């Protein structure tokens, strides 16, 4: 998918280092594994929906052998009207998260994305994936020099003591907008860029859950087996009991349509975030009163 993933300039500069294997995702994955066994660092750029075709190769040829293969997962999330229902990239977190050795990350903008690509290129402890959405960047300034991001390290974007929103990628902007609106109501909500979906930032999770404040997880991906499920698992494994609400893609196939329209249909919006935070705070306050 040289054209689809905008690899034309790379192909022009490094034609001998780019291989287009066509509609053969299984082969692309195993070929990447083979290159990794010979000390090379392959970067497999592939649509989220097409990575599903190579699941067995992911399990046995890459992750089981803990090979240094980097994945650039294009079209991660909802893809828009011209992509079609089958191209919604909403399942990859759920089917990658439970694979041992796999690291999964997603940037908040194009500047963070270039640092994640650099991080993935220099990571030598196994497979690592960078998810990124379809479309253009936000137009943010780009750093002139690249640096690696510590694996599993999240980023606090906005401080607040009443509740926490954990999110990443395309849903960060709506989370920040919701937090700003809630602040006008006197409700101070922290927004955290949970850019590493696996591994989680356990330091941040311990600190927030020990405070027992409500947590909202937000993802443009399926809820079942997704990022929010990972946060719930962490709470259960560590015997924490904060109020946690997950927002994301419901348990159904998402039809074709413009992204904004689809987000409205599944209630993945700024207004719904505000509603959910208010409900979480009511439930948490009622619990404290009963205690």
Structure, explained:
With 291 residues, the protein is an alpha/beta fold. The chain folds into 2 domains: 7-133, 3-Layer(aba) Sandwich (Rossmann fold); 155-289, Rossmann fold, CATH 3.40.50. 39% of the residues lie in helices and 16% in strands. It contains 11 helices and 10 strands. The longest helix is centred in the C-terminal third of the chain and has 21 residues, at 270-290. It is globular, with a radius of gyration of 19 Å.
Q: How many individual domains?
A: 2
- CATH class bucket of the largest domain: Alpha Beta
Distance between the termini: 57 Å
What Rg is obtained from the alpha carbons, in whole angstroms?
19 Å
Given the structure, what is the number of helices?
11
> CATH topology of the largest domain, what is it called?
Rossmann fold
| Fraction of residues in H or I helices | 25-40%
For the largest beta-sheet, the strand count, sense and barrel status come to: 5 strands, mixed
Order of helices and strands: HHEHHEHEHEEEHEEHEHEHH
Main sheet: which strands, in order across? Answer: 1-2-4-3-8
Structural class: alpha/beta
The count of DSSP E runs of length 2 or more, i.e. the number of strands, is: 10
Provide the residue-averaged pLDDT.
Answer: 96
CATH architecture of the largest domain: 3-Layer(aba) Sandwich
| Low-pLDDT segments | none
Strand % is 15-25%
Can you summarize this structure?
The protein has 291 residues and is of the alpha/beta class.
């Amino acid at each position: 998918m040289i054209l689809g993933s905008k690899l034309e300039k790379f192909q022009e500069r490094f034609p001998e280092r780019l291989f287009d294997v066509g509609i053969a995702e299984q082969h692309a994955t195993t070929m990447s594994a083979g290159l990794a066994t010979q000390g090379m660092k392959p970067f497999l750029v592939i649509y989220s929906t097409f990575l599903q075709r190579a699941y067995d190769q992911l399990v046995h040829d890459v992750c089981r052998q803990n090979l240094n293969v980097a994945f650039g997962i294009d079209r991660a999330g909802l893809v828009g009207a011209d992509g079609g229902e089958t191209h919604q990239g909403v399942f990859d977190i759920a089917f990658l998260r439970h694979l041992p050795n796999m690291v999964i990350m997603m940037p908040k903008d194009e500047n963070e994305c270039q640092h994640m690509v650099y991080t993935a290129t220099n990571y030598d402890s196994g497979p690592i994936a960078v998810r990124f959405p379809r479309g253009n960047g936000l137009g943010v300034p780009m750093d002139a020099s690249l640096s690696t991001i510590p694996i599993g390290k999240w980023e606090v974007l906005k401080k607040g003591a009443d509740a926490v929103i954990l999110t990443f990628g395309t849903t960060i902007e709506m989370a920040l907008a919701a937090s700003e609106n809630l602040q006008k109501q006197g409700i101070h909500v922290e927004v955290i860029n949970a850019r590493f979906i696996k591994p989680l930032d356990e330091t941040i999770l311990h600190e927030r859950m020990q405070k027992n404040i409500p947590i909202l997880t937000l993802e443009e991906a399926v809820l079942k087996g997704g990022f929010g499920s990972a946060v719930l698992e962490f709470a259960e494994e560590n015997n924490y009991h904060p109020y946690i609400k997950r927002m994301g893609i419901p348990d159904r196939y998402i039809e074709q349509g413009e992204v904004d329209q689809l987000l409205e249909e599944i209630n993945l919006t700024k207004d719904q975030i505000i509603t959910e935070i208010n409900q979480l705070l009511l439930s948490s306050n009622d619990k404290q009163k009963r205690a």
